[in-house]
From TrEMBL:
Chain ranges of the Four-carbon acid sugar kinase N-terminal domain: 4-221
Pfam families, per the entry: NBD_C, SBD_N
Protein name: Four-carbon acid sugar kinase family protein
SUPFAM superfamilies: YgbK-like
Organism: Falsigemmobacter intermedius
InterPro entries: 4-carb_acid_sugar_kinase_N (IPR010737), 4-carb_acid_sugar_kinase_N_sf (IPR037051), NBD_C (IPR031475), NBD_C_sf (IPR042213)
GO terms of molecular function: ATP binding; kinase activity
Amino acid sequence: MRYVFVGDDFTGASDTLATLARAGLKVRLFREVPSPEEVAGLDAFGLATHARAMGPEELADLLRDIGPALAAHNPQILHVKVCSTFDSSAKIGNFVTLAEGLAEATGIVDLAVLGGQPSLGRYAVFGTLFAKGPDGFVHRIDRHPVMSCHPVTPMCEADLTRHLGALGLCGLHLVPRGAQGERFPRLYDALEQGDITAVGRDLFSAPGPVLVIGASSVAEAWLASLGITEGTASVASPPDRAPTARPVFAFAGSRSSVTTAQIAAASGYWRLPVNPADMMAAGAALAEARRWAEERLERGESCLIYLTADHAGEISPAELARAAADFVADVLVGRTLGGLVVAGGDTSGAIVQRLAIRWLDYEAQVCAGVPLLTCDGPFGPLDLALKGGQMGPRDFFDQAMSLLQRRTR
């Protein structure tokens, strides 16, 4: 397989799926490493993991599980898809450990990092990362109003060579905008979309395999190297279908300020807050929340349950995501919905895992960075939108509902 991408969470992996699909490629996103028969006829495929929420031991287990299976596909370009803000730490979600483990398993020697995604408001200049904030201004990442105070992996270092070095990737050769890389491992700057095209020409013209860490700009660079640029940043419309009155169920595990503002603006939903401690306890309070959601869905009313920003104590993000996934699965059992909307990368991954969804296909675009996906899992056909905590406009939830309810099966 020429191009394989491995996402450290489901929301990021689905964005790369969308980038490739909008360019006209045949691509599918899997929850487990697919067999050769499952990828026959595809131009590329992806593997969505929940590595972003894993500690070192869990990451080691994941690599033992997926490394040899991915090596059997002999990828020429292995894209380790990470958040465009590069937030990670040595103890939680270390994507450098993930990348180096996959490089070892697949025998890939050359490694590169693409530092920006201008199409999403992410910029890397002189090795320093900047990102557009919810206020509309561009901030150095260690001064970003959201990412500098991320509850799990705050970005305290804007110099990507230093940040990546702290994660274990040292000796990076910085490639300035439009320049050619002289040796590996490389770190590419990117300020404008033309820089992404230049990276594609430089990085993917060599015959040998390469592993690239970065956001969906890696896919954009590869497409540009093939002469494919149209559609990589478009917002597609879904196929015309009769509208449906089926309710939409939404769950927000993200407690970022962006998602909080989106929840407040979700005028089309009944809304109910749940304390993280109650979610973990699985007691009377959670049972009441489940009854609340089921009653409204039975009446055909869309509803949104969200975790509050209350301190979760010693609860790990992975544990909280798994508890949320169990809750969502219980609500979905035996129910036909207009769709499922999930906010939060860790939460999205845990829910897809819990629902045992084998694969996801791209259908349309809710907004920049958030595609509409379709699957056919054990719960039956399901349309869903998975969003990272920092993604989407203020009216995201209402946009997602509108798009989902324009579709029916």
